[in-house]
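RECORD TYPE: protein structure
NAME: Cardiolipin synthase
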Amino acid sequence: MQEWVAGAASLVEWLIAWLQVFWPAIVATAGVVAAVWVTLHVAQHKRDARAAAAWTGLVWLVPLVGALLYLLLGVNRIQRRARQLTGGGAIDAALSAGRDQGTPLQSDRLRVLARLVGRLTGLPLTGGNRVTLLEAGPALAAMIQAVDQARDSVLLATYIFGNDAAGKPLAEALERAVARGVTVRVLVDGVGALYSLPPITLRLRRRGVRVERFLHSIAPWRMPYLNLRNHRKLMVVDRCIGFTGGMNIRAGYLREPAHMQDLHARVEGPAVVHLLRSFVADWAFTCGETLDDNYLGALEAGDTLARGINAGPDADFDKRRLTLLAAIGAAEHEVRIVTPYFVPDQTLLASLQLALLKGVRVNIVVPQKNNLRLVQWASLHALRWLVREGAELHFSAPPFDHTKLMTVDGHWVLLGSGNWDARSLRLNFEFDMECYDDPLAEQANDLIDRRLRGARRVGEAEFRAMGRWRHARNALAHLFEPYL
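PREDICTED:
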């Protein structure tokens, strides 16, 4: 035994001595091999030439560390998971049902846009809808009331469900619904659930509410970094009434004074089926349970033409970005954008510049003080060029405005969970709704006007007055645009 131990010790000493002599060559060889592998992988799998060039430069300039970062952040696991997320042939068929049907527009305006988005999404433009815009506080109250009136089912998906003054009343309503025999299913994003500790999911489970966490695992090697988040905000009650928009369930909206503003919408009519089937697909992917996705609501609830737009990596890849490009291209008079995070890619920036050259008025409203400082700096770099081209930029005063809203020519409205950044355009799962309706667009523009009354106009002179170090800071932050 002693001889075996002595032999093992000698072998270890020899290995250490050998490594001390040859470790530079080993590390250099490993670095070159890793860099070559990453370069080949990037060349074959990256569609964005800028991202490909950035990753290639990183792995050669920072050997091994760059390869490790690429393995953790750059390898596209998204496509495999997104294919699973479609939920199988039955749900895919349901989501594309009626692609050649739909209500034709009564106006020639934006007819091409409606046809394009229909082909892009494979979903019909449904008529007979009523869409009611709600600020965050009234929206939460309306959702709680709808849950208390539920008789069949409540399906809720959200990114953040706070265990706070906003989340607890809704949780209590869900618990009361379960006690009445209502089928309740709650889907919270795996990362978003961690915004409150202890998470609301523990309370819901203890009270008998079925709740799941989207793409969550306590094993670090199974938890998908910070991408592939389910950023959708959906609630469908009794398979006939829907709620969607940008509002998370957080107490910041309810405090006095409020810390945040936001926008949600109550939806009645056939478009609710798009919300319903989006939830059913996400739920089936998360836990394997197939829910009833048959719509039970009215066919004629209002006069709004509406369509849901699912966006996400792979299965619904680029649908949101292409919709935005098409809407900007279709504009003849005015584009109005309200968003908390404005870091568009080069194609979206170019489309807005073309709209300005065409004589379209472009109005952009972003928060004066963002809750994500790096995003704000990158946003200022992009906005600088748009303001120079003639865009009207406004900084909305506190509280922080989380609203996501867009209107075109006083007729078309886009609302939902998506932001104007790479995360929403390429990495997260989002749900937006496009609506064709003059009265609804007027209501949306009135809401934007209210934001503008408390906002500050920012012109080119203010950008010129910024110190050089601020411009440099903003430009450096904008280098991270593909990952913000």
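COMMENT: Residues 410 and 444 are 9 Å apart (CA to CA).
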